[in-house]
């Protein structure tokens, strides 16, 4: 057993190194970085990388799992510090915008696995979501499942923008619009914003 421990430690360190490099690649706009390039950047042999992750979809899934764990830590820390859900969701949306190469690869995996990832994300966000509603900061007629739809729409919107500085400005503005729609006018009906719905009545300036 003593002989196996160093090997396990090496395997763990190698896996962590691969994930660090992959995370940097996925958030740096490197959508098509092959595993051999990941191996080179991590300073490892290709066989080592393939032993941990047989293809880029497996690697993307591991990076996504790490992101969910990081999100769980953010949510727990925000609860302890008393930070509002607005801050958490702003971070999630901003991260989604910068991790588009990862989401692009995740779109290639089976639909069931995509749904599992979104369900995991929504599950982590649901408790602070409900607390924000109970405190009157979040619109009462929103549902946690809406968060998954928002993330999908945000990714689709990013696809329409050119990969330059203007896209960053557009995405920040879009995120601000999303947050304003969720966290302001919490008593307003969502269906009043749907095309074809009855126009709003009464004074809504307050």
TrEMBL record:
Stretches assigned to the HTH tetR-type domain: 12-71
Short name of one Pfam family: TetR_N
Recorded superkingdom: Bacteria
Entry keyword set: DNA-binding, Transcription, Transcription regulation
GO molecular function terms attached to this record: DNA-binding transcription factor activity; transcription cis-regulatory region binding
Record carries keyword Transcription regulation: yes
SUPFAM superfamilies in alphabetical order: Homeodomain-like, Tetracyclin repressor-like, C-terminal domain
Ranges of the DNA-binding region feature: 34-53
InterPro entries, per the entry: Homeodomain-like_sf, HTH-type_TetR-like_transc_reg, HTH_TetR, Tet_transcr_reg_TetR-rel_C_sf
Protein name according to UniProt: TetR/AcrR family transcriptional regulator
Organism for this UniProt entry: Frankia nepalensis
């Amino acid at each position: 057993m003593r002989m196996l421990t160093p090997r396990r430690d090496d395997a763990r360190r190698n896996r962590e190194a691969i994930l660090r490099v992959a995370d940097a690649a996925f958030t740096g706009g490197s959508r098509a970085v092959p595993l051999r390039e990941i191996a080179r950047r991590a300073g490892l042999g290709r066989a080592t990388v393939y032993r941990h992750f047989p293809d880029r979809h497996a690697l993307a899934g591991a990076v996504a799992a790490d992101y969910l764990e990081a999100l769980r830590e953010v949510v727990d820390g925000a609860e302890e510090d008393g930070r509002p859900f607005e801050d958490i969701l702003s971070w999630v949306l901003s991260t989604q915008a910068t991790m588009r190469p990862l989401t692009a690869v995740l779109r290639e995996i089976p639909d069931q696995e995509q749904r599992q990832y979104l369900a995991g994300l929504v599950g982590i966000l649901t408790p602070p979501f409900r607390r924000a509603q109970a405190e009157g900061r979040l619109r009462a007629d929103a549902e946690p499942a809406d968060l998954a739809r928002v993330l999908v729409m945000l990714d689709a919107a990013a696809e329409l923008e050119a990969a330059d500085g203007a896209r960053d400005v557009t995405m920040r503005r879009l995120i601000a619009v999303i947050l304003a729609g969720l966290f302001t006018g919490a008593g307003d009906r969502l269906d009043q914003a749907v095309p074809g719905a009855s126009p709003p009545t009464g004074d809504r300036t307050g």
